[in-house]
Amino acid sequence: GQTFLPHGGGKDWDCGNLQCASQPVFLDDEIRFYYMGTTMRHKVHWELDPQRAGLGMASLKPDRFIALAAGRTPAELLTVSFGLPSSNLFLNARVARDGWVKVAALDAAMKPLPGFETERCTPMTGDSTSAPVRWAGGDLLRAAEGKPVRLRVTARNARLYSIFATGPEEKPVYHVFNAVRP
């Protein structure tokens, strides 16, 4: 329901027609969208009317097209069961000053994995596209690697954009996707 790339206001150079370049530019911690804008909106023979035009750039952090938002009352997300490729879990989230995000690891039957309960998770705070998930007494889920797990994410005053796991030697890269097929 929100406009992704809004028009400029009044008589700004981009208050009319907007056209994005053919594809976004993926950088390490930013996605850039280059676009052309004009002062004229589409209508019959709009191209014949006097107008100004320019080039612009809009950007956002990786994977932040949509979020699950938690308010003052803690909210919870339970994932489907999936094979954990490694113990390297990361969160892409923006957390308000008085907020947090915590993760619990469960088996496929939703039984908590010992040592990886919500209470033992180090709360994620701040703003990060790849904050590692850590638990007190150990942050490695090696025993669960390759086995079906579920994650229970609990958050307060936070926006959660994505949860992801990388392979054992893999660097977290948001624009390379290996989709899990049912």
What keyword list fits this structure?
mainly beta, 4-stranded antiparallel β-sheet
Walk me through this protein's architecture:
With 182 residues, this protein is mainly beta. It is built from no helices and ten strands. The chain has strands at 18-20, 25-27, 30-38, 53-60, 68-70, 75-78, 82-83, 88-107, 127-132, 148-166. The strands form two sheets. Strands 5, 6, 7, 8, 9 and 10 form a six-stranded antiparallel sheet that branches. Strands 1, 2, 3 and 4 form a four-stranded antiparallel sheet that branches. Strand 2 and strand 3 form a beta hairpin. The chain is elongated and about 70 Å long. It starts with 17 loop residues before the first strand and ends in a 16-residue tail after the last strand. The mean pLDDT is 87.
Which class do the helix and strand fractions yield?
mainly beta
Distance between the termini: 29 Å
What overall form do the CA principal axes indicate? elongated
**Mean of pLDDT:** 87
Extended strand count: 10
User: Which ranges are low-confidence, i.e. pLDDT below 50, for 5 or more consecutive residues?
Assistant: none
Instruction: Write down the secondary-structure element order.
Output: EEEEEEEEEE
Query: What Rg is obtained from the alpha carbons, in whole angstroms?
Result: 21 Å
Number of contiguous helices: 0
- Measured by DSSP, the beta-strand proportion falls in 35-45%
Helix content: under 10%
Largest sheet: 6 strands, antiparallel
